[in-house]
Protein: U3 small nucleolar RNA-associated protein 25 homolog
Amino acid sequence: PFTKHFEVEQDLAPVVTNDAVKWQKKEMKIPVLGPSWLLYRDPSLLQHPSTDTDLKKLHVKQKLCSQALNTNRQLAGVIPKPGASLTPLQQHLFSVMNSYQDLLYPKETVQNLEELRLVYTLHALNHVLKTRSRVIAHNTKLKNKKADTDEDVEYRDQGLTRPKVLILLPYRDRALKVVNMIISLLTSSEQAVVSNKKRFDSEYSELENSQLSEKGFKPADFRKIFEGNTDDNFRVGMSVSKKSLRLYSKFYESDIILASPLGLRMIIGLEGDRERDFDFLSSIEMLIIDQADIFLMQNWDHFLHVFKHLHLQPKEYHNVDFSRVRMWSINGLSKHYRQTLIFSSVVLPEIVTIFNKHCHNYGGKLFVQRAEKLGTIRSSVSDAPQIFHRVACDAPSSLSQRNAKFEYLKKKIIPYHTSAGMKQTLIYCNYYSFVHLRNYFRESETDFLFINEYDTEKHVRNARIHFRKRHPHFMLYTERLHFHYRFRLRGIHHIVWFDLPQYPHFYPELVNLMETTHHACTSTVLFTRYDAQKLTEIVGSKRTAHMLASEKSVNMITVS
Structure:
């Protein structure tokens, strides 16, 4: 599969550069993975995933084959069936990865995070070792070639710069886990030599004052996300050889780069900056994005900034031997050969846009669909009426939707919620909506409080106390703040969901905090037709279809 994808003899320029050649879509049902969409431009260029379960038959390096099972048991915490090195989920994902198709897998869970991490680490390491073997073999052939021969043989096996694999991760702890898996996969009977491991462990191990050290109950998914070192500003290069791994290698001497979007943004810089560098992103052959949904809870602009600087022509010469550079790399077609693997726990418009607009793999791409669900609303134990308002909106942009919902809120929701019996209403929103609403409430002199992810600990603590005891009409509460702290807010009588939550389990989590014992509580949701995916995760596919098609724009659900 490696040879077929990167050394294809056919000139792909007429296919990949022709906008008239549209992406075709084919519905599939893949065992274990479930319903999926296969997208491709030319069916003759597709590599069909192998059904073999033996890693050797899948052209995986012998060293990795022997260590996959041990690494799975020790670091991924899973035990495959007897005779197998991978679990059924890992086998089917690896066969897709090994065919060098792009992949969007939006089914990450607390339970399968390490299982998925092992399979993409195995694939990335296999890719790097194959490239290295090929380069060494060609070096030997060139060295042994007789000086007097007229044979003019070209061995094109490299990119314009050395880094081949870029793995984007949200926190240092995830980088530590990936490196430990790489070391385990490289270690057979002989211990792999790892340079700078002590320094790496000290810089990437758990911080003393982590979020998990705070008092109070935190859900299992929160504890998993924020375990270990949660610093989101890091980057580290790695050079890989047969029996050794060198950490902190210079980027232009590295095979693999592990980084956070912020960590890369710091050295990519902005136009006009004196010192900036992004040439190392010019020849990335494999891009792996793990826990992509968390990047939206950090700063999505940093993530997009990285994509804008992939596969640009290098500004400097980095000791490259142009006689060894692949022609498609010289011709600026690298992005069409790059494999992109995206893992997420939810399907979000921003992630789908990345997959549709920034993944150009000529070998096709697979979009695994999330299973039909009954919705997280079933986890709500509150008997309060839950009212869903469909807001008319003509454009899918976030600004258009925000403006439409804001006008609806002013006319229909706020007048009702400012009456005497409707105090202590929590308004859940993202940060952009928060700024809009805060400015409006200030101008209209409405009785309100607010807390967001940029507030001091003292401000947040005081606002929570005042909300419970002073009984204001409203408190603005941002999604990022809830993601990073998962407060168990007290004193909630009503909730207005100005924005649907990115994580569907946040919905019942907050609804169940409403104090229904002594108060008539309500949950009010604003949504547009462009929120269909998020709405489906909360109320289920059947109810979503009804709400979007119904003549009535307001629907009420009572969970009993």
In short: The chain is about 35% helix and 15% strand. The mean pLDDT is 91.
